[in-house]
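Input record (Table S2, row 494):
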Amino acid sequence: MRNLLSLLTPKTCFNPRLDPSLGLAYECAKTICILVVLSLPCLPQVTINDVSRLNPVKVRQVISVTDIEQIKQAMKIAAERHWKLSIAGKRHSQGEHTAVRDGVVLDMTTFNRILKLDRSSKIITVESGTTWAQIQDYVNPFGLALEVQQSSNIFTVGGSLSVNAHGRDPRFGPVIETVRGFRLLRADGTVVNVSRTGNDSALFSLVIGGYGLFGVILDVDLQLTENDVYKKRCARLSYKSYPEYFTKKVQHSPAIGLHYARASISRFDYLQRMLVCSFEKTGQRPAGVFHLMHEAHIERNRRLVEMSRKSQPGKDVLWLLQETFADNPVTTVISRNNAMRPEVAFLEYSSPRDTDILQEYFVPIPRFTAFMDAIREIFLRNKVNLLNLTVRYVPKNTESFLSYSRQDSFAIVLYINQPLSDAGKAHAIEYTRELTEAVLQNGGTYYLPYQLYAAPSQLRAAYPQFDEFLSRKREYDPQELFDSGFHEHYRAGK
Ligand SMILES: Cc1cc2nc3c(=O)[nH]c(=O)nc-3n(C[C@H](O)[C@H](O)[C@H](O)COP(=O)(O)OP(=O)(O)OC[C@H]3O[C@@H](n4cnc5c(N)ncnc54)[C@H](O)[C@@H]3O)c2cc1C
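Output record (flavin-adenine dinucleotide complex):
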């Protein structure tokens, strides 16, 4: 019986590859399907997880939606039955942000049409399940590019707005800077236009960086920019020289469109030597520079990362190769769109024993060296299996209510391998709390889309506005229809 019911899931009914030329009949069938499935007295449970595979959650159902009516229907039924509703994009956030136990999950990845491109104002309107990759494919022929996007283009617009993601362009802070407005479906079923200046302007700062707790972002107006061409140059530095190098050569240079740095994971200069890369505007236009590139050498790169996961010599070799080849051509000429589609498929990993997780800390520029010293000490003492450490710059922007960029900061992104066992998790909690303490002592903060390892008191020290954020959520959503494991965990102040 349970298997039979599983077949009836809305995901099956609403396969977007079904022929929509059936028109009204198709739309009705989809809506009826949601009604039928959610109305079943004993819904089958499904277990879903995020990309880290560390957070399995049993939910009543995952509903793939393609239009607003379906979202409204799902919300109505969930509200009537006092079920919680979570909203999911690509589920790359790693701390139960997209599901809650016994809840219903709205899968937004099929709500992904590009609605409009105004080439004169360079504003694109897209549904929130659209990915950055889709937008790049669409705007590249028009010589346009995104202003802010994470290091990779695999994420949805809705998921990126909800964490207020940041990227590698030092001229921009978080993605909120590039949002002109959006439509939001609120818990009471009303659709509101949200912008910085309209009637619902308070929701602009609550929803962006609001982790899906204030409603469903429907469609979004995003500012685009020119698809510039850059010359990429990399330099080797000691981590102690990096802050000065950055403030003198990068921070206020309008010609630099992208910038990142990487610290060594080799035992010979662990977290001391850095490779620092900037992409500077050039007038050169080599043949084919605007053709969108696709990831190559996936298997080879996967094997190299695997080697580094398993041993220190593997890490030494990987760093040597990175320094010598990957990040160290004398110069490369590359378009903005291509530079904003870095390779990621080789990072996909599915061992039954261990997994890779991300963490990110924001530290004021003058405290960078001290915080790097703290990471090195904590990681060596705790034998943390660090696979990569990159640094980006996030200038101050406090528009989002739950803003993390409250001052000009370096964002330090850690890519760590962790066992899937309980002991592995306990160990990770221990060193994460040490790192969080260290960043707080250095006047910084940490990023919320990752594991729920920070203590509630640490979260509140990093985000003193958090309890006010929760009470604003209750104002807009008194029954707390929109919920997640992240919200449950920290709401209780555990
Ligand atoms: C490999 C990797 C690299 C990363 N690099 C960066 C980086 O460079 N910079 C950076 O800032 N972050 C980075 N991140 C974090 C990433 O930006 C977030 O995890 C982001 O949320 C992922 O988007 P998603 O589509 O997977 O969203 P999900 O994880 O599915 O959702 C994230 C949040 O958005 C909410 N949400 C999703 N869609 C909607 C909607 N339509 N309406 C309302 N709420 C919604 C969800 O409820 C959830 O709270 C990285 C993560 C990974 C795994």
